[in-house]
Amino acid sequence: DVKVTQSSRYLVKRTGEKVFLECVQDMDHENMFWYRQDPGLGLRLIYFSYDVKMKEKGDIPEGYSVSREKKERFSLILESASTNQTSMYLCASGRGGAGDTQYFGPGTRLTVL
Amino acid sequence: GIQVEQSPPDLILQEGANSTLRCNFSDSVNNLQWFHQNPWGQLINLFYIPSGTKQNGRLSATTVATERYILLYISSSQTTDSGVYFCAVSGSARQLTFGSGTQLTVLP
Fold first, then answer.
1. Closest among A18, A36, A21 to A74, alpha carbons compared
2. Are the beta carbons of B86 and A42 separated by less than 8 Å?
3. What distance lies between CA B48 and its chain's CA centroid?
């Protein structure tokens, strides 16, 4: 079974702090994704990566950065957390190509005070 | 970008009832999927449905690409079906665009 793990299930941070969210997948997938989920808005893509050291902006990249130094690990970084970044963050991975699905981690619920 | 609309946004059913969820999209796409998010937040793919109809137990999905919508049927619903159902599509790009979801509650 594909396994996608995220470093924290719940996280509470203060405004202005630097926040790291880690995601690890064990299926050698090329593609990895970071989404945020907010009520009534569905999942919105923040950043994605098709290869090591490669990154592409999604629909809402402002205020975020990412790092992919190893194939299995994709990190989301909030340089200076703000209260409007309070959300559920979901990581996903997949092989890519037509018909490929994405496998999701359990999510990190981040609260910024 | 591609716009995706789901209906209804909320649905409450009595156990044993049937339901149909709908997803409309704005442009030609080649990757249509349904996901279920359980009450604990875990998202799982239900169907990849580029065309026609697929069935998996009490669930089935149908794509009507010419009219730009897909359907998810849930028959004889159970409390374990509760959660949020998302459709997701993609066009030429490999990333998926998700709808805003249907919150389903099945009452015992």
1. A21
2. yes
3. 10
A101 vs B99: CB contact, 8 Å cut-off? no
Q: Decide which of A39 and A20 is more confident.
A: A20
Smallest CA–CA separation between A57 and chain B, in Å? 11
State the burial class of residue B35 (Cβ atoms within 10 Å of its Cβ: 0-12, 13-18, 19+).
buried
Measured distance CA(A37)–CA(B20) in Å, rounded:
24
Contact state of A33 with B95 under an 8 Å Cβ cutoff: yes
**Distance in angstroms (rounded) separating the CA atoms of residues B86 and B99:** 6
Which of A90, A96, A101 has the CB atom closest to B33's CB atom?
A101
* Secondary structure (3-state) at A83: helix
Q: Convert the pLDDT of each residue in A46-96 to its tens digit.
A: 999 999 989 999 999 999 999 999 999 999 999 999 999 999 999 999 987
Residues in chain A within 8 Å Cβ distance of B44: 104
Residue B5 φ then ψ, to 5°: -125, 130
Say if residues B74 and B19 touch (Cβ distance below 8 Å): yes
